[in-house]
Amino acid sequence: MGLQLFTIRDAMKADPLGSLKKAKVMGYQDLEIYGFDPETIGYYGYKAKEFKLILDDLNLTTTSGHYDFSSYFNKPKDELRRYLDTCIQGAHILNKPYITWPWLAPEFRTIENFKALSGKLNWMSEQVNSAGLGFAYHNHDFEFTDHNGQTGYDIILKETNPELVKLQMDMYWVMHSSKQTPQELIADQPGRYVMWHIKDMDKVTGDYTELGNGSIDYAEMLSQIDTDALQYYYIEQGSNFAQDSMKSIADSAEFFKKNLRQYL
Question: Using one digit for the tens of pLDDT, what is the confidence trace for 45-80?
Fold first, then answer.
């Protein structure tokens, strides 16, 4: 059972070790991380080697990380390449098999920039794959915005190499903004959706909510999806907690174990 640590970013900032121990007790076994420091090759105030010892001691794994590639979007290619090299170093130390591009800043969200992004994803995936790691792109809602009959996601799907650029589906955002369902997207791109983000949608506001409290019928959805390509999944909730972030991941874990884990 995976957890995207961004869900508990406040707790990780205040007490990373204690927060990881609590997540472990809740039943989380695997992590997707964020907040990489390229200057120290570190995470959450620890150097990567120190963080790996913590994970090993807790018998936790990390299988993907979100990195700040968007900040390098308009910088020279060599700068992004050097940053990616540091990301690869950190991933190797943690024995983490995937590096994921998680976000494109609002000022870059044009059709022309999605084409430029696709080119970056292609050469970055070659660099990552040559280092023995996998590379993926994570969606939000903005990829599904209509630009005179085109969407950014259409461009990414068509103009990236499906063998090298894998996809991390955020199921909440697909349900929120795409004209296609997760089932349809996965069926259209066999072998590409190697990771999923699983989070629920508030029945009234459409915001995030704890698993089981929202409008997404994950039992029905997961029972119908081809999981052959799936390697890792992460429970996530970015905000709008009923109480606080740690209680949120506890509630979502309990619902997931009782109702959804059987499908994965």
Answer: 999 999 999 999 999 999 999 999 999 999 999 999
Q: What does the pLDDT read at residue 3?
A: 98
Considering only the C-alpha atoms of the chain, give the largest distance between any 2 of them, rounded to a whole number of Å: 52
Residue 202's pLDDT is what? 97
> At residue 122, what is the residue type?
N
142-177 pLDDT, tens digit each: 999 999 999 999 999 999 999 999 999 999 999 999
If one counts every other C-beta atom within 10 angstroms of the C-beta of residue 37, the result is 15
Q: Are 173 and 206 in contact (CB under 8 A)?
A: no
Q: Please tell me the pTM assigned to this model.
A: 0.98
**DSSP labels, the chain:** -EEEGGGGHHHHHH-HHHHHHHHHHHT--EEEE--EETTTTEETTEEHHHHHHHHHHHT-EEEEEE--GGGGTTS-HHHHHHHHHHHHHHHHHHT--EEEE----GGG-SHHHHHHHHHHHHHHHHHHHHTT-EEEEE--SGGG--BTTB-HHHHHHHHS-TTTEEEEEEHHHHHHH-SS-HHHHHHHSTTTEEEEEE-EE-TTT-SEE-TTSSS--HHHHHHHS--TT--EEEE---S--SS-HHHHHHHHHHHHHHHTGGG-
Sheet holding 42-43, edge to edge: 36-37, 42-43, 46-47
All domains of the chain in start order, with CATH: 2-263 (3.20.20.150)
pLDDT band at 94 (very low <50, low <70, confident <90, very high): very high
Residue 137 pairs in a beta bridge with 101, 167
